[in-house]
Amino acid sequence: MNKSLLITRPNYEITTRYLFAWSGIIVTMARARGVDVIELKKEKANKKELESRLAKLKPQLVIINGHGSDTCVTGHDSEVLVEVGQNENILRSKIVYSLSCNSATCLGVESVKAGALCYIGYKTKFTFFHRNKISHPLDDNIAKLFLDPSNQVAVSLLKGNKTQDANRKSKELAMKNIQKLLSSESSRESTLYAKFLWSNMRNQVCYGNQEVCF
């Protein structure tokens, strides 16, 4: 039986347009490695579809892209997908990576309590800068500084790394980019980027089973 991944890919404004594009790299890699991919793209990134696919197809890995808060993560048009006290139990027995602001603060903790194997996410706002290359987000080298490290979590998991190692490798790539930005030729702009990369890295957490692999 093949491993399976469920990934949400909303796309309705500039932030989610960028996440949609960069999450496509994960989809391509997963399929190349023989993983069954369940994509909830655009309007399909809604609560009904998520709950249905999780119940029927039982993917081992769940990647959520979108906006979030302390208590929830959202999909297309900011529809709430998973919320504390409502349906966090749908993540039971899953490895979860949520690329969304704040969700690890409460939702991550409560998801693990409800049976999620592991929850990797961010305790505060996840920030990235971009050049507004809305038609070609993957050509945006500023966004790459932030979204390569965030993608590294999923890349590492797909390669069979333990959850703690996927979290660590992501942070190591963020630190590498920080060091580049703070080189001798650094500008005020690059110092600003480094500041927010550091915040993303410092507030990226891995809750639950640190040893589990996808």
Largest sheet properties: 6 strands, mixed
Share in helix: 40-55%
Domain count: 1
Unreliably modeled segments: none
**Which strand order spans the largest sheet, edge to edge or round the barrel?**
2-1-3-6-7-8
H and E order: EHEHEEEEHEHHHE
Q: Which structural class matches the secondary elements?
A: alpha/beta
Q: Whole-number average pLDDT?
A: 96
What fraction strand?
Answer: 15-25%
Q: Tell me the total number of β-strands.
A: 8
The name of the CATH topology is Rossmann fold
- The first-level CATH class name: Alpha Beta
CATH architecture: 3-Layer(aba) Sandwich
Question: What kind of assembly state do the chains in view correspond to?
Answer: single chain
Rough outline? globular
End-to-end Cα distance, whole Å, is 13 Å
Number of helices: 6
Using only CA atoms, what is the Rg? 16 Å
Model description:
The strands form 2 sheets. A 6-stranded mixed sheet has the order 2-1-3-6-7-8, sandwiched between helices. The chain has a two-stranded antiparallel ribbon with strand order 4-5. It has a single domain (4-208), classed as Rossmann fold, CATH 3.40.50. The mean pLDDT is 96. It has helices at residues 14-32, 47-57, 104-113, 141-158, 163-181, 188-202; strands at 4-9, 36-41, 61-65, 72-74, 80-83, 95-99, 118-122, 204-208. With 214 residues, the chain is of the alpha/beta class. It contains 6 helices and 8 strands; from the N terminus they run βαβαββββαβαααβ. A hairpin with a 5-residue loop joins β4 (72-74) and β5. The longest helix has 19 residues, at 14-32. Helix content is 43%, strand content 18%.
